[in-house]
Amino acid sequence: MDFATGVHLSNGQTGFPQNGWMRSMAFIKRYWIAGLVMCLVVIHAVIIGYVRSEASRIKVTASNEIPLGLYYVQSADKEWMSQLRVHVLVAPDQRLTAKATMEHHRWLLHEVVEEKLRQLDPQLLEDAVLLEIKEQIKLAIEETLEEEIIERVLVNDRVDIPIRNFDYQPPGDITQPEAIYTSATKSEAKIEEVDRN
């Protein structure tokens, strides 16, 4: 059989069975595009499945705790300052919305929490778990935002500092740009010059 024409050879033998070879070539010619499209669809489905699984894993593992800042409260006898770091816990499905809302009102919320802490009875600091303080902070934030998005207020890094040892660093001027630490002058950098001879 001549492979190019599919004709029987003169001695009556064929190289391949004529029907099988011709059918397989006809099948490939007819359906190769459909096979290629199916391969692309399978690859696309695998990629999309992987991306979705990673996105859901990230969504599940992302924290639903939003920091509000560091606050100082003076004791009743004016001898101690209590440092409190405040976070709020929101529902996992509202994490992104709540974070955007709180970021949008960041300084207003900071002021509200500071004012609420100054208005509270300093005797409440004697409570080890600060239940009343947490409840008051939660109410103040929800009244300000006019939304009930907070599940719980967390207060940690509580440190009682004696007033005589309290070294408060005032915040810098926010209108002044931050220094670029890599651009020190030659005298400040104390760079040793190397003789290139």
CATH uppermost class of the largest domain: Alpha Beta
CATH topology of the largest domain: Tetrahydropterin Synthase, Chain A
Tally the helices: what do you get? 5
Mean pLDDT rating: 78
The portion of residues assigned to helices is 40-55%
Terminal CA distance: 83 Å
What is the domain total for the residues? 2
Overall geometry? rod-shaped
SSE succession: HEEHHHEH
CATH architecture title of the largest domain: 2-Layer Sandwich
Helix/strand/pairing category? alpha+beta
Number of DSSP E strands: 3
What this model shows, in words?
- The chain folds into 2 domains: 1-61; 65-165, Tetrahydropterin Synthase, Chain A, CATH 3.30.479.
- 44% of the residues lie in helices and 17% in strands.
- The chain contains 5 helices and 3 strands, in the order αββαααβα.
- The protein has helices at 18-61, 95-104, 106-119, 131-145, 186-189; strands at residues 65-74, 80-90, 150-162.
- The protein has a 3-stranded antiparallel sheet with strand order 1-2-3.
- Helix 3 (106-119) packs across helix 4 (131-145).
Quick take:
The protein has 197 residues and is of the alpha+beta class.
Tags for this entry?
197 residues; alpha+beta; Tetrahydropterin Synthase, Chain A; three-stranded antiparallel β-sheet; 3 strands; disordered N terminus; disordered C terminus
